[in-house]
Amino acid sequence: MTGSRLDTQVIVVGAGPVGLMLAGELRLGGAEVVVLERRPAPTTESRASTLHARTMELLDSRGLLAALGTPPNEPRGHFGGIPLDLTLPSTHPGQWKVPQTRTEELLQDWASGLGADIRRGHELRTLTTGAAAAAHQDADHDGHVEVEAAGPDGTVRVRGRYLVGCDGEESTVRRLLGAEFPGTSARRELLRADVDGITVPNRRFQRLPQGLAIAARRGDGVTRVMVHAFGSTVTARGGDPEFTEVVDAWKRVTGEDISGGTPLWVNSFGDANRLLTRYRHGRVLFAGDAAHQQMPIGGQALNLGLQDAVNLGWKLALRLRGAAGEELLDSYHAERHAVGRRVLGNIAAQALLLLGGPEVEPLRAVLAELVAHEPVRTHLAGMVSGLDIRYDMGHDGSGGRPGGTVGGTAHPLVGARLPHLVLDPGRGPVTAAELLRTGRGLLLDLRGGTPLRVPDGLRDRVAVVAGRSEGGGAVEGADCLLVRPDGYVAWAGATTEGLADALTRWFGVRS
To answer: Could you state a single Gene Ontology molecular function term (predicted)?
Structure first.
């Protein structure tokens, strides 16, 4: 503390899953972090309940899956309500049903266990940036961000070198900063409720003459219902809908009366579709729904946000250690904005297929035929699951320099996630996911003989692991791979040409 001001390196606003994931990633990278959350306690509302394959792989790379036990796994998902087999090569194919309350609990335990300072009941009121933070080209070591938050014991001032808004669709950070958030407002909505004491048939995206109805009965007897009456538009209301709205819409669409049930939670979500122009504004960055607003179809919104956090955390931590320049932080916007734009595009298409009336039936019929073709299924499943993400890392991952190539072109793995890989470094088999749990990058040397070395100044950022791989087809044509802490391949090659440049680009040098 300095007087009445708390000093830290990163201020994270929002302690939902994205903010907590980011806080853990920052602590793993050695950064000091304070999380400000306006809610006095974790939510008891389990909004999102789906974790996709890529997110499960990332949680595995942080050692977090054991605490989840064995959540229900469903290989079948959907695209706009049209059944879609999500099975693709992965250690965790399909979708995994984990209530958001459990995801938040898991990530809070992890982040706080690593030393994150999580302060609930603190509502952001003001945000100011130091002169050096106003423009990103001036964001040197003297810049700062300062906020005031209303806490249980009065106003708290927190000063940090960076701030990340993870405070959701109605982001206060975004509003205070005046960040451009173009897109479309919601026109249609799904009403949603968890209801106890009703007995209705399970329905999976059932389109009836009057609308769309979804019902799923849980093991505890509670039924989640979702309903949209064709032709209805978003209702202007001050908060969540009343249960009577759900009852009336459900009766109109299905003919069933659920008024005798006990609502445990009622809300609605619309088809708004917005994307920040920039994920980075100098020393203020955004992740999760604060950066992109979309209909939460198929759980993609939560997974998109968690993957934002994993992409940003290690980069920001390296920047704070003086081990990387502004270009590394710029790559967060470049990589995740492109992913966000693509995901919002597929969600907009799905919203049309789901909430459109009889006029979309011909389109649905054509798409259902196309999904039966394996290349189409694979393409859509990769998009929904996040397994097909490939970042633009230049020609070979080292900024466009020669090397790391196969036959004059970039190795197919450069920019993609590292597939499941089991290594035997001489002390027993270990997976690449296990090796990533320190939060460092990996230099995997599969050649045999004298292992590669990294410069002394990079040893705290990149671990060298030499050993044979089991099932080497996944890395055919690459005897060495440089893997970022988020699990994406930054460089691959049959020789070491271009490796030094890739190490400098992604992991910097000791200042």
So the answer is: FAD binding
Q: What does the pLDDT read at residue 509?
A: 61
Containing structural domain, residue 11: 5-49+99-183+274-346
Report pLDDT digits (tens) over 474-483. Answer: 577 788 999 9
426/494 Cα distance (integer angstroms): 22
- Of the residues 251, 270, 289, which one is the last residue of a structural domain? 270
Give the neighbor-by-neighbor strand order of the sheet with 123-129.
5-7, 154-160, 145-151, 123-129
Beta bridge partners of 190: 269
Q: Which helix (H) or strand (E) holds 164?
A: strand 162-165
Stretch 328-349: mean pLDDT = 97
Q: Which residue has the tokens 């695209």?
A: 79
pTM given for the model: 0.92
* SS3 of residue 446 by DSSP: coil
Residues 174 and 298 in one domain: yes
Residue type, 242: E
In a domain, 117, yes or no: yes
| Residue 285 sits in the same domain as residue 167 | yes
Is the Cβ–Cβ distance between 479 and 435 less than 8 Å? no
Same-domain check for residues 201 and 299: no
> H/E element holding 202?
none
- The four Cα atoms 149, 154, 157, 158 give a dihedral, to 10 degrees, of -70
Name the β-bridge partners of 280: 285
In a domain, 394, yes or no: no
Q: Are strands 5-7 and 117-120 parallel, antiparallel or unpaired?
A: unpaired
Q: At which residue do the structure tokens 């942080």 appear?
A: 62
DSSP secondary structure string for all residues of 348-386 = HHHHHHHH--GGGHHHHHHHHHHHTSHHHHHHHHHHHHT
Q: Looking at the structure, do residues 18 and 142 belong to the same domain, yes or no?
A: yes
In a domain, 266, yes or no: yes
Is pLDDT at 451 greater than 90 in this prediction? no
- Provide CB contacts within 8 A for 248, sequence distance 6+: none
**Beta strands 462-466 and 441-445, pairing class:** parallel
Task: Judge if 28 and 175 occupy the same domain.
Answer: yes
**Burial (CB count within 10 angstroms: exposed 0-12, middle 13-18, buried 19+), residue 349:** middle
Structurally, the chain folds into a number of domains equal to: 3
What is the pairing mode between strands 430-431 and 468-470?
unpaired
